[in-house]
What does this fold into?
Amino acid sequence: MVAKKWEMKEQISKDVEEQLLYCYGIDPDKKEDFFSPSYEEKLRSPFEILNMDKAAERILKAIKNNEKILLYGDYDADGICGTIVFHDFFKKIEFSNFDAYIPDRHKDGYGLTLEGIDEFKKQGVNLIITIDCGITDVEEIKKANDLGIDTIVTDHHFQGENLPPALAVVDPKQEKDEYPFEMLCGAAVAFKVVNAVIEKGDFNIVDGWTKWLLDVVCIATIADMMPLVDENRAIVFYGLQVLKKTKRLGLLALFKKLKITQKNVKEDDIAFFIAPRINTAGRMGRAGISFELLSTESEEEAEWATDRLDQKNDERKELVGNIISEVDKLIDGNPDKEAFLCFGNENWEPGVLGIAANRILENYNKPVVLWGKGEGKYFKGSARSNGSLNFVELMSVLGDDYFSDFGGHALSAGFTIKGDKLKDLGSAFTEALNKIQPEKVENSVMIDKETSLGEVDWKFLKVVEKFEPFGMGNPKPVFLIKDLEVSEVKMFGNGSIHMRIDFKKDNGKVLSAIAFFMKNEGVFEIKKGDRIDLLASVERSTFKGYDELRLKIVDFKIL
It folds into this structure.
């Protein structure tokens, strides 16, 4: 476990709610607007996004003339959920002349392909709508134009040097867009487009029907680690309410398989259980399975897809664990030798490298680059930053000399490496690093409030829950509890990789604190009878339908 610096935020009140309002920067006079965001006020008009009117007009024309539409979604949870948004809308208006295509990570790679455009022409496609991809597909969309196929790009990634020559590019991150909130996920952009089409068209749809689509938009927003502020907070806030009522057979089967009580589903259930399984099909096999899970109207197919995804998720966890173990051995206790960690293996499956990189980043608090080929045709990699450098900027320095394709976000990026450049990749990254200005990042944790074991009860938790949903941009509050005596330490889970520490309150009741994936974290020195200072969040566990108040460990120090 990498040592963290503990920093206490200014303590302005002993009252939990007042202190947290201060820490989150919320005006006490406007707290109810934060606790219960208004759907109508928070979600802006879709027509404020550049090119939305043109996109809506073209989709309406295709519907009116019964043109063939192809939905081309990315193979991750965001792209799949965004494709479901369009799928559900077309089904709702009884428009059937459309197909949904989720590309194969190994066969197709990311985004549109020239070969795919040829195939879509043969199929008689008149209009392609991309979801969560397309913003960098300049040559592919030019070819579609040459073949007489119109393209609407709906995406949320940064544009390249040139925008694709699509009929309409709907992406709040494109340079000329002035939409006030650009941090929407791909599915949320798709949701905006569907709302615009409905608003501009003349359909027999009751007002507010699109809210039922928020279950998948909520999943995508959390899965893609979008900041839960502004519009995203409202999307997830109401999306969780929809999830508690959703009738999607695939999600109901997934809840049952994972022992999630539907009425209690929370953002952590999505982040740690639901989204990884939707993502795992694209990482480990055919992403279409996840699309079938979310779109099926057959209980039998829903159960089959759920079992298949659960199996693939187990395989994914094993692969990730093996990669992390190999990297730990290569680092050999000396992670500070290099400015960032760069490792690769031809046998590593590219689809799981992002997850492995995230875990390694958490373990060592250093930027991480991993590459592999697995069963694919090309060497691909994933990069994760701790904030000290922008990987898209770094890879732009190397450019076409090293990568046939790269992109993503500042802290999370992916790339395809030219095979002859593999042996020089580490040194090339180091040279490129000298051309940009890395920032110093301290591995610190901010403490919102000091409290006591006796103060942590259900009433305390209900105050904390007012600030939900938690996630990127709205993290769980961290509490300091000093001088606790450990009454029990247990490792649990398959392979005993998770840890539980029990503490006894003055009234004799036990309050447990848990931490996940601690097997390789060097924590086995803690034992019964030790006294520790603990940093933890407070949460409600509803595993197997049983309500439990517990702490989730952020860090601890043995006294």
In short: The longest strand covers residues 531-541.
